[in-house]
Automatic annotation (TrEMBL):
Name listed for the protein in its UniProt record: 2-oxoisovalerate dehydrogenase subunit beta
InterPro entries: THDP-binding, Transketo_C/PFOR_II, Transketolase-like_Pyr-bd, Transketolase_C
Co-factor requirement: thiamine diphosphate
High-level lineage: Bacteria, Pseudomonadati, Pseudomonadota, Gammaproteobacteria, Oceanospirillales
Organism from which the protein derives: Reinekea forsetii
Domain (Transketolase-like pyrimidine-binding): residue spans on this chain: 1-170
Function: The branched-chain alpha-keto dehydrogenase complex catalyzes the overall conversion of alpha-keto acids to acyl-CoA and CO(2). It contains multiple copies of three enzymatic components: branched-chain alpha-keto acid decarboxylase (E1), lipoamide acyltransferase (E2) and lipoamide dehydrogenase (E3).
């Protein structure tokens, strides 16, 4: 993420970043460390603790020719910026008859199991994906983070990119040369023939581990990283399910009325006659995220849960 922001700020002087503790502190997760030393406080702006205020500033800057990156310290704070995001940024292009664009990025985080309790552990990607005019990226690896962020910064629409807090410890290959991952393009992480495991963010790693466990049982699982949920790459997901005949959709957001529901609905509409088993979804429990580690771990999808459900679907023993 740091490389993506720095490279785009060098490439385009209109790009700047603002948010709480983005300069000297480098954010609580140190994602923006070093940027202020290179670009200065005119382009790396520490803001007051007023999310609606600096989000409004970013919308205005974007409408008048700049390309701001809004650093929202925790994804839970999306509730505080919803008017500026949903009523202003998402609708200006439509309401102006195409005369105005709002090329801004909101980068924030998501995810439980970090012991941050109910107000700092939510996964709210479905909330903003529901709003026409917004694009939503949800990377699962360092490679995807950089490629999707660069695409988001160059896009002429408002884009929200969610990073799983636990993934900041992840290591992965990132090319030295320039690359961009187009928004709306899913990735087949590993090929399989018996069942499709369709996942977002850190749930990709959960599904990869489940695929290894399933292989020991003689079950071949295909793992897909959705990458962006708005727009959603229907074709890649549908083609996978047509091949395997079964699917589990896994997302860390609350299961009811969430990302898993939408993906299952689209698969049902476009691949129903290829199915050999009911489409299944696994999301977080519909409860506030507990602070207790023992309880928190029970609320989110697990490798064991995905593995057991996949075996049930493939064997037909539900």
């Amino acid at each position: 993420m740091n490389e993506a922001i720095a490279e785009e700020m060098r490439r385009d002087e209109r790009v700047f970043i603002l948010g709480e503790d983005v300069a000297e502190a480098g954010t609580p997760f140190k994602v923006t460390s070093g940027l202020v030393e290179e670009f200065g406080t005119q382009r790396v702006l520490d803001t007051p603790i007023s999310e609606p205020g600096f989000m409004g500033m970013a919308v205005g800057a974007a409408m008048t020719g700049m390309r701001p990156i809004v650093d929202l310290m925790f994804g839970d704070f999306i509730y505080l910026i919803m008017d500026q995001l949903a009523n202003q940024a998402a609708k200006q292009h439509y309401m102006s008859g195409g005369a105005l664009t709002v090329p801004l990025v909101v980068r924030t985080n998501m995810g439980a199991t970090r012991r941050s309790a109910a107000q700092h552990s939510q996964s709210l990607q479905a909330l903003v994906a529901h709003i026409p005019g917004l694009k939503v990226a949800i990377p699962s690896t360092p490679y995807e983070v950089k490629g999707l962020m660069k695409a988001a910064i160059r896009d002429n629409n408002p884009v929200i990119i969610f990073e799983d807090k636990l993934s900041y410890q992840m290591k992965g290959e990132v090319p030295e040369e320039e690359y961009i991952i187009p928004l709306g393009q899913a990735s087949v992480v590993s090929q399989g023939t018996d069942i499709s495991l369709i996942a977002t963010s850190s749930m990709v790693q959960v599904c990869q581990a489940a695929a290894v466990a399933l292989a020991r049982q003689g079950i071949s699982a295909e793992v897909i990283s959705v990458r962006t949920i708005a727009p959603l790459d229907d074709a890649t997901l549908v083609n996978s399910v047509k091949k395997t005949g079964r699917a589990i959709v896994v997302d860390q957001g609350h299961q009811s009325l969430g990302v898993t529901s939408e993906i299952v609905a689209r698969l049902n509409e476009q691949a129903f006659y290829y199915l050999d088993a009911p489409l299944t979804r696994i999301g977080a429990m519909d409860v506030p995220i507990p602070f207790s580690p023992a309880l928190e771990d029970l609320t989110v999808p697990t490798v064991e849960g995905v593995t057991v459900k996949a075996i049930q679907l493939v064997t037909g023993v539900l």
